[in-house]
Automatic annotation (TrEMBL):
GO terms for cellular component: cytoplasm. Keywords: NAD, Oxidoreductase. The lineage of its organism: Bacteria, Pseudomonadati, Bacteroidota, Flavobacteriia, Flavobacteriales. The keyword Oxidoreductase applies. Residues 19-423 form the Aldehyde dehydrogenase domain. The keyword Glycoprotein does not apply. The active site is at E207, C241. InterPro entries: Ald_DH/histidinol_DH, Ald_DH_C, Ald_DH_CS_CYS, Ald_DH_CS_GLU, Ald_DH_N, Aldehyde_DH_dom, Aldehyde_DH_NAD(P). Belongs to the aldehyde dehydrogenase family. This is Aldehyde dehydrogenase.
Length: 454
């Protein structure tokens, strides 16, 4: 690991990555590599999850390709030095800001979207001019192995290299000095990454998770709201960091909501065979999810095929904040429904807990919408929609508090992997004597006048 990180530092210090045309060429090479190996990539993720080619493209590669295309088309604009106004104190001079790459970066991907969550931050790092060591999750072993094969056979290891392995390899990587670490995963592991980075004062972006609420209010349009909610919740069998974790619902809407939600799940006919469902990542997570289910509160669903690692969509009713399913992020196909009588009551309950990565508000009342957006803190979200905010690269994606540090996607990703260097360039044809000694009351009066202080 030390040898690899040092090799990348030598490559970075050669200034090759400072060339914008070099960055664009590498991004285009990555896109070509992925497109030319789509069948193999599809087969690998199907072996790990049972994910269909349709969802592999829409949920994994589609966003990566959009990121690459946007970076290639806008890189010159993003990397351009920006002139800013110079104050009178520094006359005659000009001021500007120069974006520059941070250096050698480590990207640690997550298992639930093994292509997207490894490659999207890598694209941002390359666009910003960094070298990249990518450590994909070892849990989806087929995708990890194929990513390593394709990337390591196509790129200079001093520039872009994949390291496979588990805890030991990750620990060895974190012992090295990087200029940037980008981690996607659980809050508990995020703390470990943060502590390791602190030893070298390495800046870190943490994309974590949390219990993201979906809030329905009295005048929400239930039919379309439930359709969008159910799709978002059971996409990837609920193994999505920004999935709606639980529903908050007026008591008066409970029966209609449950009936419509059940109908929507039945119409979707979720299964691997239908191409719209996947397996739970491993046996450990199957057991964890089983422990969260209170059979007395299951309204619909609940079939578990342990040998195939498949848990069919589950709706739970009459849930309270004290139930086991509400004590941790679910990260699976279980949807608890909590009813409320007062909006202020549930705002208070959400505020008692850690800030979520996402929040989804379903309402037709602008005042209620604005109240929730104003009073609740969360990473990002949507109104009358769920999950889809991630598809707009103009919206920086990231958490707040325990749900994450920093953001990326689009220009926000470029900024995450860049340092903005501030420059004051002074002319030499004139110099004021105000700042030099000997000091005098008259000089001080002029300085105060220039500063606008009477």
């Amino acid at each position: 690991m030390k040898e690899l990180s040092e090799k990348q530092r030598v490559f970075f210090n050669s200034n090759q990555t400072k060339d914008l045309s070099f960055r664009i060429k590498q991004l285009q090479r990555l896109k070509t590599l992925l497109l030319s190996n789509q069948n193999r990539l599809n087969e690998a993720i199907y072996a790990d999850f049972g994910k269909s080619p349709f969802e592999t493209f829409t949920n994994e590669f589609g966003l990566v390709f959009l990121d690459i295309d946007e970076a290639c088309s806008k890189l010159k604009q993003w990397a351009k030095r920006k002139r800013v106004r110079t104050n009178w104190i520094n006359f005659p001079a000009k001021s500007y800001i120069i974006p520059e790459p941070l250096g050698v970066s480590l990207v640690i991907g997550a298992w639930n979207y093994p292509y997207q969550l490894s490659l999207a931050p890598s694209v941002a790092a390359i666009a910003a001019g960094n070298t990249v060591i990518l450590k994909p999750s070892e849990l989806p072993s087929n995708t990890s192995k194929l990513l390593a094969e394709l990337i390591n056979n196509s790129f200079d290891p001093g520039f872009f290299h994949v390291v496979e392995g588990g805890i030991d390899q990750t620990t060895a990587l974190l012992a090295q000095r990087f200029d940037k670490i980008f981690f996607t995963g659980s809050t508990n592991v995020g703390r470990i990454v943060y502590q390791a980075a602190a030893k070298h004062l390495t800046p870190v972006t943490l994309e974590l998770g949390g219990k993201s609420p979906a809030i329905f209010t009295e005048n929400a349009k239930l039919s379309i709201g439930i359709k969008r909610l159910i799709w978002a919740k059971f996409l990837n069998a609920g193994q999505t960091c920004i999935a709606p974790d639980y529903v908050l619902l007026p008591l008066s809407m409970k029966d209609e909501f449950l009936q419509l939600a059940k109908k929507e799940i039945e119409q979707a006919s979720y299964s691997i065979e239908n191409g719209n469902y996947v397996r739970i990542i491993n046996d450990k997570n199957v057991e964890r999810l089983k422990s969260l289910i209170d059979q007395n509160k299951v309204y619909f669903g609940g079939e578990i095929m342990e040998e195939k690692r498949i848990i069919h969509p589950i709706l739970m009713q009459d849930v309270t904040f004290d139930d086991a399913v509400m004590q941790e992020e679910i990260f699976g196909p279980i949807l608890p429904i909590i009813t409320y009588e007062s909006l202020d009551e549930i705002i208070s309950e959400i505020k008692k807990r850690e800030k979520p990565l996402s929040c989804y508000i379903f309402t037709g009342d602008s005042a209620v919408k604005n109240k929730l957006l104003s009073e609740l803190s969360f990473g990002g979200g949507a109104v009358n929609e769920a999950i889809m905010h991630i598809s707009n690269s103009r919206l920086p994606f990231g958490g707040v508090g325990q749900s994450g540090v920093g953001s990326y996607h689009g220009e926000a990703g470029f900024r995450t992997f860049s340092h903005y260097k501030s420059i004051l360039e002074k002319a030499t044809w004139f110099e004021t004597k105000l700042k030099y000694s000997p000091y005098s009351e008259k000089k001080l009066q002029w300085i105060r006048r220039f500063m606008g202080i009477s």
